[in-house]
């Protein structure tokens, strides 16, 4: 089978989205709508992918380098859009044409469609589907030999006969053509309609009039061609995309406790025996190893997690957790945070641009920013690395097996050696040598009888200064 040229129609204004963002650039599970269709074309083994956009070239920044952008100068219908891509169509190769707003189309389905077109030797093949309620769709009328005789539109009363309205097989708007036949027929498409536009389905009767065969390829998954015209459609497509994404992960050995409360982007990778608890959102290029437990109520964005990691009730973005690390509950890991094997970041801890050594614990109520901490250290509650002097950020270096007391501030740049200690309540502004105890706080003194003297003073008016 000759690899097809895939033409994706994407020049529509998408006004029903009511958005400053072009419709096909709206995100769906971590990718723009158009990227889903482009991926399907690639998955079908396309020799070339051509996207037909508008004269504003708004889609250009989001297109991969190997995708060709053809510009439709005026919105004059779908046949005119294909004409805009005519220079990219090979007369001797098959052409698949589909809309850019059908993101659930898969590469496998397009490949099967192209194979069916090649096998039947037709000039054109339509992708069709059977719908329980085909209202609003063009009905496919077949000849006795199974070929497509015509497509009957049903937009207005009287467009179709009662018998034709009983037909459940409908046109999906996805076509395969022989390249030369398509190019020849496009030149004959007229604009004798209420809108004065050139419509791609009008190519089919032109081909039949020339004695060329038009066939149909019926698919049993109507969701493949579920389109997006407005925000409601986007929500429906999102729900179906989530169902498919999560079904793929569960088939690969991932437990998703409550799929209805879980959101997983299409690019997320999850290892077997990992459990995704309810109310989790996994986004971007997130990677999770095997045997991990995520959530409940955890958000991961572009995060990399190893095997056996636990992250309940936390928010992680652009960070790395090695095998056996644990985070949370109620922790926040910001970009550049690295937790080495078996490290722990506990409750109400924030970590930014820091490397936390293997087995090190930052149990609770701390901020670790721009720091490097060695293995086996224990960072006491309410520890702060004061990394900003008002102009620049500075790093804190804490060695291995360090024991930091509670309520300690490390004023960067400062270093603490291996096996050192810091006393509770200290403000460490100078380096602490290896094995030393750093104490940096005012000496305590007790004022005897203070409570009684305070009460006597309050009983006088005005109080004595």
TrEMBL record:
<feature type="binding site">
    <location>
        <position position="229"/>
    </location>
    <ligand>
        <name>UDP-N-acetyl-alpha-D-glucosamine</name>
    </ligand>
</feature>
<dbReference type="Pfam" id="PF00132">
    <property type="entry name" value="Hexapep"/>
</dbReference>
<comment type="subunit">
    <text>Homotrimer.</text>
</comment>
<dbReference type="GO" id="GO:0008360">
    <property type="term" value="P:regulation of cell shape"/>
</dbReference>
<feature type="binding site">
    <location>
        <begin position="387"/>
        <end position="388"/>
    </location>
    <ligand>
        <name>acetyl-CoA</name>
    </ligand>
</feature>
<feature type="region of interest" description="Pyrophosphorylase">
    <location>
        <begin position="1"/>
        <end position="231"/>
    </location>
</feature>
<feature type="binding site">
    <location>
        <position position="352"/>
    </location>
    <ligand>
        <name>UDP-N-acetyl-alpha-D-glucosamine</name>
    </ligand>
</feature>
<protein>
    <recommendedName>
        <fullName>Bifunctional protein GlmU</fullName>
        <ecNumber>2.7.7.23</ecNumber>
        <ecNumber>2.3.1.157</ecNumber>
    </recommendedName>
</protein>
<feature type="active site" description="Proton acceptor">
    <location>
        <position position="364"/>
    </location>
</feature>
<dbReference type="GO" id="GO:0006048">
    <property type="term" value="P:UDP-N-acetylglucosamine biosynthetic process"/>
</dbReference>
<dbReference type="Pfam" id="PF12804">
    <property type="entry name" value="NTP_transf_3"/>
</dbReference>
<dbReference type="GO" id="GO:0019134">
    <property type="term" value="F:glucosamine-1-phosphate N-acetyltransferase activity"/>
</dbReference>
<dbReference type="InterPro" id="IPR038009">
    <property type="entry name" value="GlmU_C_LbH"/>
</dbReference>
<dbReference type="GO" id="GO:0000902">
    <property type="term" value="P:cell morphogenesis"/>
</dbReference>
<feature type="binding site">
    <location>
        <position position="138"/>
    </location>
    <ligand>
        <name>UDP-N-acetyl-alpha-D-glucosamine</name>
    </ligand>
</feature>
<dbReference type="InterPro" id="IPR025877">
    <property type="entry name" value="MobA-like_NTP_Trfase"/>
</dbReference>
<feature type="region of interest" description="Linker">
    <location>
        <begin position="232"/>
        <end position="252"/>
    </location>
</feature>
<feature type="binding site">
    <location>
        <position position="171"/>
    </location>
    <ligand>
        <name>UDP-N-acetyl-alpha-D-glucosamine</name>
    </ligand>
</feature>
<dbReference type="InterPro" id="IPR050065">
    <property type="entry name" value="GlmU-like"/>
</dbReference>
<feature type="binding site">
    <location>
        <position position="381"/>
    </location>
    <ligand>
        <name>acetyl-CoA</name>
    </ligand>
</feature>
<comment type="similarity">
    <text>In the N-terminal section; belongs to the N-acetylglucosamine-1-phosphate uridyltransferase family.</text>
</comment>
<keyword id="KW-0012">Acyltransferase</keyword>
<feature type="binding site">
    <location>
        <position position="23"/>
    </location>
    <ligand>
        <name>UDP-N-acetyl-alpha-D-glucosamine</name>
    </ligand>
</feature>
<feature type="binding site">
    <location>
        <begin position="77"/>
        <end position="78"/>
    </location>
    <ligand>
        <name>UDP-N-acetyl-alpha-D-glucosamine</name>
    </ligand>
</feature>
<dbReference type="InterPro" id="IPR011004">
    <property type="entry name" value="Trimer_LpxA-like_sf"/>
</dbReference>
<feature type="region of interest" description="N-acetyltransferase">
    <location>
        <begin position="253"/>
        <end position="465"/>
    </location>
</feature>
<keyword id="KW-0479">Metal-binding</keyword>
<keyword id="KW-0963">Cytoplasm</keyword>
<feature type="binding site">
    <location>
        <position position="229"/>
    </location>
    <ligand>
        <name>Mg(2+)</name>
    </ligand>
</feature>
<dbReference type="InterPro" id="IPR001451">
    <property type="entry name" value="Hexapep"/>
</dbReference>
<feature type="binding site">
    <location>
        <position position="101"/>
    </location>
    <ligand>
        <name>Mg(2+)</name>
    </ligand>
</feature>
<dbReference type="GO" id="GO:0005737">
    <property type="term" value="C:cytoplasm"/>
</dbReference>
<dbReference type="GO" id="GO:0003977">
    <property type="term" value="F:UDP-N-acetylglucosamine diphosphorylase activity"/>
</dbReference>
<dbReference type="GO" id="GO:0000287">
    <property type="term" value="F:magnesium ion binding"/>
</dbReference>
<dbReference type="InterPro" id="IPR029044">
    <property type="entry name" value="Nucleotide-diphossugar_trans"/>
</dbReference>
<feature type="binding site">
    <location>
        <position position="72"/>
    </location>
    <ligand>
        <name>UDP-N-acetyl-alpha-D-glucosamine</name>
    </ligand>
</feature>
<dbReference type="GO" id="GO:0009245">
    <property type="term" value="P:lipid A biosynthetic process"/>
</dbReference>
<comment type="function">
    <text>Catalyzes the last two sequential reactions in the de novo biosynthetic pathway for UDP-N-acetylglucosamine (UDP-GlcNAc). The C-terminal domain catalyzes the transfer of acetyl group from acetyl coenzyme A to glucosamine-1-phosphate (GlcN-1-P) to produce N-acetylglucosamine-1-phosphate (GlcNAc-1-P), which is converted into UDP-GlcNAc by the transfer of uridine 5-monophosphate (from uridine 5-triphosphate), a reaction catalyzed by the N-terminal domain.</text>
</comment>
<keyword id="KW-0511">Multifunctional enzyme</keyword>
<keyword id="KW-0460">Magnesium</keyword>
<comment type="similarity">
    <text>In the C-terminal section; belongs to the transferase hexapeptide repeat family.</text>
</comment>
<keyword id="KW-0133">Cell shape</keyword>
